[in-house]
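From the pipeline queue, job 12 of 40. The input is one protein chain; the requested action is below.

Action: predict structure.
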Amino acid sequence: MSRGASKIFFLLSGENPTLPTSEVKSILEAEGFSYRTIEEATQLLRVEVSQEAIEAVKSRSAMARVCCIETLRCRAEYDEIYRGLREADLTGLINAGEGFAVRVRRVRGSSPQIDRLELERRIGEMILKKVEDAKVDLENPERVFFGILTGGSFTFGLKVAEIKPKTFIQRNPRRRVFFHPTAMPAKLARCMVNLAQPRRGELVFDPFCGAGSILIEAGLIGCRVLGLDVKRRMAEGSLRNTLHYGVEPLGVLVGDARRPPLGDASFSCIVTDPPYGLSATTLGLEPKNLIAEALSAVIDMLERGRRICLAAPKEMKVKQLGEELGLKHVESHFLYVHRRLTREIAVFERV
């Protein structure tokens, strides 16, 4: 283990098999943390990193759920779990006299032979024996020990942070002051921003800003934001939405993304959800052609080595489109929306 690093594990959202893991890694990279991946499993990511990274993930992530300092990793068998806990060092994780609770989460039916409630009870009894004057407090514990059963294994440690999905639900399109049916959900917008890896204070540009989902989420993590939309009504609505959530963009401009009125502007990241649905405006062009022309117009404004993250229908094959424009394809994730739409979330780097 590198100096100053700890084993940290994250319980991840189960709504997509690849996005949550990539989002957490992107946050660590954006925030400048050196880390080593230990394991990727269903809804679980284990890394070796400074404990300071937990706060960075907590403040930015849309798809991490719980962040913990790891004390035990073993097969999901009672004997191995109890043996490991007897040998585990809880120094610094709980103090004498503190109240605690134990929570165990089972992922997708993993390890059905383990009685989750019985496991919580037995672990609690073991902690009581190891820590002087500790007491169980299920209502308002000072410390929460958290375990995950997934893939036939058990990972256990002290919960340090929890991310509530409710905060994103409160910013979903229908709750905004300006609504449009094509607006991206707040959680996905935040995830896309994180995949682009902007740092606090850097400028994020959305050339198809619509109702402002991406601008809002980038602004809330401390980025400067600039939006563009061809329709004045959308640009004005985007501005209303961003200001409603306390985000003050550098500007929300009215203009054609193929000929952006930006002069010699320079961006750290470009994050966008271009128009492609029935309710979207594509200027009478094929969506793929519109996206290709818009990317061509702004690539030179992106700093070298920095990222573009965009969403498009799977059948559009934007990986190939980006590579034809000279961009390096970093990764793609596929997100089922409904019968007629599976989104590809593609990440590119300007070389």
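Job complete. The longest helix spans residues 116-130.
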